[in-house]
Structure formats: C-alpha cells, structure tokens
Specification:
The chain is built from three helices and seven strands; from the N terminus they run H-H-E-E-H-E-E-E-E-E. The protein is an alpha+beta fold.
C-alpha cells in the first residue's frame, strides 16, 4: 500500500468508529470484521488485557461495553509486514494509543489496540 492508501484506510476506520460512538450503535462498524476476526486490547486501564474472538463476540463486546469517546489520528500511519499501524489519541483526555489492523480480503482479521 502507498502512504496515501494507508492514511485513507486509517481515516476511514477512525471515521467509522467515531460515527458508531456518536450513534451509540456499532453494527455497521462491526461489519468491517471478518467472521473469525480477533480483537485484542492491551494495557486497558483497570482491566489489563481483553480479547474477543469472532465477529459475534466483537459485536457483543461493543454492545455491552461501548466506548464513550471518539479517537483522532495522532501521527503517521505505517505498515509492518502484516499490519497497518495507526497511532491515535482519545478526543476527551488526549491519552495515546496504537491500533494494529490486519486486513485480508477487505475485512479486518485482527485488531490489536494498545493503550498508553
């Protein structure tokens, strides 16, 4: 992917997430994940690590524990061998994070979010 492609992908992902937060509904956002996707959160304040396997489990996690803040891109988007690496900050308190997306066949196969 080119740098512009990476930036566009990250901007679309962030916009989709933020729209879901604003609407209080994550159905359309979760459709970006494959059926067997894995979503992992690391360094979650007060919780440590959390992992959800499969689109149904991811949807349930967003239904029962929805985020209440939006995010903003905070630096250049990069690509490792397999992942798109997206630095972000939470809009409210500006706390940082990094999101790693692994995309196959147009869907997210893995999303790892590292807080702090």
């Amino acid at each position: 992917m080119t740098s512009d492609d990476l930036t566009s992908l990250a901007a679309e992902h962030v916009a989709s997430f933020n729209a879901a937060v604003a609407a209080g509904s994550f159905g359309a956002f979760v459709e970006c994940f494959s059926d067997q996707a894995v979503m992992r959160f690391e360094n979650v304040p007060g919780a440590g690590s959390l992992e959800f396997s499969g689109r149904a489990a991811i949807a349930e996690a967003y239904r029962t524990q929805p985020p209440d803040d939006q995010i903003e891109l905070s630096g250049p988007v990069e690509q490792t061998d397999e992942d798109v690496v997206i630095p972000f900050v939470w809009a409210r308190d500006r706390s940082p994070g990094v999101m790693h997306l692994r995309i196959e066949h147009g869907r997210i196969e893995q999303m790892r979010v590292i807080f702090g």
